[in-house]
Design goal:
The protein is α/β, with parallel strands linked by helices. It contains 14 helices and twelve strands. Helix content is about 50%, strand content about 15%. The strands form two sheets. It has an eight-stranded parallel β-barrel, surrounded by seven helices. Pfam families: Bac_luciferase. Keywords: Oxidoreductase.
Length: about 325
């Protein structure tokens, strides 16, 4: 099982993220994932590239609807150039966030994402070969003209991971992507939904299941004080429980009542209530939390179902920045090679 880590860009400074990336690199993690919420993940990855030597540097995720495919391709190529060929492009539709903050839509998400990935890869090919090209498409058709100002990329192609929870997007990832990236997945959901649908997509694309890197973020809170680790896990699990994209997993486990209790508490008391009201069932299912020994033991439960585990540091309010940074360092100590 490959082991990676997320870096908490939401509540830590760019300088702190670079320092934490260096720690993750030294600990031997496969990849450092930096997700997009408000700060730009590509900016953070550029700084992380300067603070690291070998670890892969990934967006996990970058929101496709907020950038053109060619803009996304060039942002990823920047990181690949700065890092010497260590970039990974994690893509997602981020539809709820996008609709609320950017005023854009992503209807027909599977069709759009298929075209988007095709256009991103065509952009890299264009830069590499210097050959004009036409990319047809309903949403992302584009023309690449002859030009004297094309860049020299370290690699012709950069790995693309697609984020998916529902079967159709997971199948698309299995069909066209280098990896399928998820979050808030359980061992049962991996076995019942994710792996079978990645296999369907892989076979549709003429590939084997083993050709696709199946990766998922698992909320992981490590602390010498077990009670404190569980408190932090309650916060992050509670926040994700509120997100509609996580509903398929909640429904799969029959935890709609526990989800509603979290929603009611947040509506009445705000997010501070999460550290008290998030049910133990949710915390146990959707996180690895406890002392270092407890976390190592629970992580092993994923070994047969998740080829690539991404230890996901809590960051949601009322989590403090220093608490999130401390957790990354605890992950390095606990799971580092």
């Amino acid at each position: 099982m490959r082991q990676s880590v997320t870096l908490p860009l939401s509540n830590n400074s760019f300088e702190s993220i670079a320092t934490l990336a260096g720690a993750a690199d030294a600990a031997g993690f496969d990849t450092a994932f930096i997700y997009e919420v408000l700060r730009n993940p590509f900016t953070a990855l550029a700084l992380a590239a300067r603070a690291t030597d070998r670890i892969r540097l990934a967006t996990g995720i970058a929101a496709a609807p907020t950038r053109t495919p060619f803009g996304m391709a060039n942002s990823a190529a920047d990181i690949d150039e700065i890092s010497g060929g260590r970039a990974v492009l994690g893509l997602g539709s981020a539809s709820g966030f996008t609709a609320a903050c950017h005023g854009t839509t992503f209807d027909k998400p599977v069709t759009r994402m298929r075209e988007y990935v095709t256009a991103v890869r065509a952009g890299w090919d264009y830069q590499y070969t210097k050959e004009p090209a036409t990319v047809p498409g309903e949403f992302y058709g584009c023309e690449f003209p002859a030009s004297p100002w094309l860049r020299e990329n370290p690699r012709r192609q950069i790995p693309i991971y697609l984020t998916g929870i529902g079967p159709k997007m997971v199948q698309l990832g299995g069909e066209i992507a280098d990896g399928v990236l998820g979050a808030f997945k359980t061992v049962e959901y991996m076995n019942d939904v994710v792996i079978p649908n990645v296999r369907i997509g892989a076979e549709r694309g003429g590939r084997n299941l083993e050709d696709v890197d199946i990766a998922s973020m698992v909320i992981t809170c490590v602390h010498p004080d077990r009670k404190e680790a569980i408190r932090r896990a309650r916060i992050q699990v509670g926040v994700y429980t509120c997100f509609p994209p996580c509903d398929p997993v909640i429904k799969h486990h029959g935890l709609e009542r526990e989800k509603q209790a979290v929603l009611d508490a947040v509506a009445a008391k705000g997010f501070d209530a999460l550290q008290d009201v998030t049910d133990d069932k949710l915390v146990d299912l959707f996180s690895i939390a406890g002392t270092p020994d407890e976390c190592r033991a629970k992580a092993k439960e994923y070994a047969d179902s998740l080829p690539h585990i991404i230890f996901h540091t809590p960051y949601a309010p009322p989590m403090l920045p220093e608490e999130s940074a401390e957790n990354v360092l605890n992950l390095c100590d606990t799971f580092g090679s």
